Amino acid sequence: MKIISIGAGPASLYFSILARQRFPSWDITLLERNAAGDTFGWGVVFSDETLAHLLGADPPTHLKITSSFAHWDAIDVHFRDETSRSAGHGFSGIARRHLLEILGARALELGVKIEHGVDIADPARVRELAGQCDLLLGADGLRSLVRTTWREEFRPTFDVRKCRYLWLGTPKLFDAFTFAFAETAAGMFQAHAYRFDERMSTFIAECDEETFARSGLADAPIEETVAYLENLFAPWLDGQPLLVNRSQWIQFVTVRNERWHHGNVVLLGDAAHTAHFSIGSGTKLALEDAIALADSFTHGGNLDAVLDRYEAARRPVVERTQKAAQDSLVWFEQARRYRELPPWQFAFSLLTRSKRITFESLGKRDPAFADDVARRFAAAAGVTVSLGEAPPPPMFTPFSLRGTTLANRVVVSPMCMYSATDGVPDDFHLVHYGALAQGGAGLVMTEMTNVSADARITLGCAGIYTDEHTTAWKRIVDFAHAQSDARVGLQLGHAGRKGATRLMWEGIDEPLAEGAWELLAPSALPYLPHSQTPRPMDRADMDRVLAQYVAATHRAIAAGFDLIELHMAHGYLLATFLSPLTNLRTDEYGGGLAARARFPLEVFDAVRAIWPAERPMSVRVSATDWHPHGVTDDDLRALAAMLKARGCDIIDVSSGQTVPDAKPIFGRMYQTPWSDLVRNEVGIATMAVGNIQSADQVNSILASGRADLCVLARPHLADPFWTLRAAAAQGWDAQRWPVQNTAGRSTLARG
């Protein structure tokens, strides 16, 4: 087989090494535009996991690389004159130039031909080369000409990110992977620094676009820029200079391709995909691409089968890495959001930014650091932990709002049961909510409970609009208070245009075949094309609905609820006023956000006015409609600020379900970033919700300051005693158990 590579970086060099090892007769030529020994950058980073891959693929290369490594296992975070150190991370660095020398020498030793100074700039020449070989490797980096030549086939996308960064070197030898944050009049700058050999360290300076613009560095000569950064980061450079190597301020570009191969052409490394340097994965991905492609050839088959297998094997791994890198780079883009966090929490937030490190895994890497985080979190919650005493996991610290204190930070999410008769909760609801309360959660929220019969989603939805409803709910609340430490919250709502539908298991969102009632909404837009068209509300309708909310609130007080939450999310009535997708009004209740929010805020004000001052009030919002023309982050900030100013105590940050053609992107804790935004930018307490599944995720979200409470739905449907199980699994014995169930605790502890 004849192989030509355009580009002789780590991906093509390592693939050629592995290919010549396994197929000594193959003719492999690498064409590199740079002269031998000429490269950009300073040092590259490998994790212990990557090193294991290299050892298995080619032991001689692994030995030469690792003998040149600078090893460290600690991460230092310098923020507001404090340093937080976390150990047990296992990284190694090597000079990029030396890595290329090692790979190049090994490739030449195995008979690979490498031609330097071959600058190919013409797509026609690229196509010509593809016709002269059995396989053309596109290993020519971020600005790949190979990818450009077959742009329609590969269909690349380029996500240009918001920060500016400058890649420098320094003789200062850092003994840990170092993150340093420095405040200036222009804004916050941050440094990513690590040693890569016995003489040098990489030093990457970074700042957001606004800071860059205000700093005056955009037009400054590189010498002035370096002097500015040396002065700014002097506390961590110990008098050592910053050094330049083709250095300029640039923006990171995340590259993705719909396909990685076409005909006899295949992309590797940065030509196929990029991942932000903050998780040190560019060279890692390139080398692992090379291993996967060589392995696929080893398994045999024709070229199409080999390249299909390579892409199928690599794409899920790369996409997971890119997702982690995206989470990481977004954290650094908005690092100024976390300025108000205490330094220990700022550091924990940084360490857990990509979700690859969690509270639990950090406890295994560095038990002392995790213990310190837990102690500081407990102290911030008013919990005194004696020396020698284990601190509570963050999820088992109390949380207070107004005159109500929750025993822990776990919340049972509002989940419609569609099992009421004429809106009346019955024995099913007593058992359901009673079990959830006894299961240990600090706060149990009711399903969306409607302010009138015509406000229901389905005929099975619960209500609180008659005396019978009040009595039934009081029975449930009294049981929870008597038999557990749980507080009980009422979620109050109105279905709006999503009302008069079938029970969930009979066809979710499908309109009733008969017996439907008139629907109300801000605009005459049906939810589904075949749904009933709602009547646009006039002022009389608004007054009537407002009165229904007020009456329901009086009933909630009589029933003894500890917290009340207004449902302004998921495409129900108040949410449809807030979203530009569903509010097309041209009067004072439509247009910009302030107008769209007018009626929902009227409802809030009316409820807050009569809800007891010592009891907290929450609002559930849809942070995004998952639609390009829907609610924006700026809308979310503004709405949260309006609610905070009116006396809202905590915002329950959910998303979506506004329109049926939304395109949500699901994943672990996928809505938590919006909770983070509201909490740390607007400065109001939040509940995080959305595919939070484990106690470790709860602890990680809380300890990092991304939310104050964590809301779980499906885990509680599967196991009402989820919180008790989580306490037993973490050895936390202070969690209250129902006295009748205490014998079960020892069983869980043994488990």
The overall strand count is 29
pLDDT average, as an integer?
Answer: 94
Report the sheet with the most strands, covering strand number, pairing sense and barrel closure. Answer: 8 strands, parallel, barrel
User: What strand order characterises the main sheet?
Assistant: 20-21-22-25-26-27-28-29
Helix content class:
25-40%
Measured distance between first and last alpha carbons: 56 Å
Question: Roughly what fraction of the amino acids lie in strands?
Answer: 15-25%
Rg, rounded, reads 29 Å
Enter the CATH topology name of the largest domain.
Answer: TIM Barrel
Report the top-level CATH class of the largest domain: Alpha Beta
Q: Tell me the structural class.
A: alpha/beta
| CATH superfamily placement of the largest domain | Aldolase class I
Shape: globular
Number of H/I helices:
28
Low-confidence stretches: none
Question: How many domains is the backbone divided into?
Answer: 3
Q: Examine the secondary-structure arrangement and name the CATH architecture of the largest domain.
A: Alpha-Beta Barrel
